Amino acid sequence: MQEFSEKLLAWFDVYGRHDLPWQQNKTAYRVWVSEIMLQQTQVKTVIPYYERFMQSFPTLQQLADASQEEVLAHWSGLGYYARGRNLHKAAQLIQQEYGGEFPDEFDEIVSLPGIGRSTAGAILSIAHKKRYPILDGNVKRVLSRYLAVEGWPGEKPIENKMWEQADLFTPERRFDDYTQAIMDLGATLCTRSKPGCDACPLASDCAALKQDRVANFPFSKPKKTKPVKQASLLMLLNERNQIWLEQRPQNGIWGGLWSLPQYGSLEELEQALKPALQSHAGGGQSLVKWESFRHTFSHYHLDIEPVSVGEVQEAPAGWCGEWYNLTQTNELGLPAPVKSLLGQLEKEYVKNGQMRKNG
User: Which of the following is catalytic: 3, 6, 35, 69?
Assistant: First the structure.
């Protein structure tokens, strides 16, 4: 166990990454934000989001005082939006219950929204200098290969066993550096595909490499066919070239984000829109179908059929939402496919503000 950590730390000292934004001024707040953003997201993707986020919310207090809309606008495009909502909720709880000071006890940290055992361990290790193991995706991959762990790490008995191993491998000294080192190894060398085994400091004792089975570890989650759902998204524009957006419910997909009105089918969309079309002076506004595309979530595919209609006078009575200038929508928290559609819609306008009819 000691040899494992010594080899890893020696490698990290020479080859590890030491200049990432969250590795500077390692406060609990900064480490926490980075750990949440890095969940299921690559470092190169996170860096610009993290830097913008920290520029707007440099302290936990400023994050707690911000509106959810401001927070989600900074999260727009990063995906897994529950992370952003939970980050904001947790900041408010810390403000209310801990006087704005990030807690330094495991049970208190893990009770906060969006923080699990591994994230709590990383915060305690890196920021509070307390010895706690971690077991994020990178660490699971390193350990499952080094130990040739048979079975999917998501199964509870296997996960429990890996937690035991993660704890045993965590050294008594320099555990904060070790935490960053093992994550770094998984992110840079012990990668999912094309791992750099030739440069790995643990290669000589790696069971998967000895068995010539590196590609088999970690075992994949038993595959299930993802269901496919349908959605029609409405791009409704008024005579002032503003787009109608609605805020999604807090729970569920895209919770709290601003989005286009969504319907289960084109027929449902047309029925809901009928009052707005009939009220248009001159009538006869037609829907323009755009090319359909697929957006994939972790547990299902969503086939999206975008539809546009322009120059209505007002939204139908009873609709809850707001009109926004297309140039203002970047200030909102938007789902990635909606953000892309609005960008395309801007390009569909000619100088006099009329939408091209070719869709």
Answer: 35
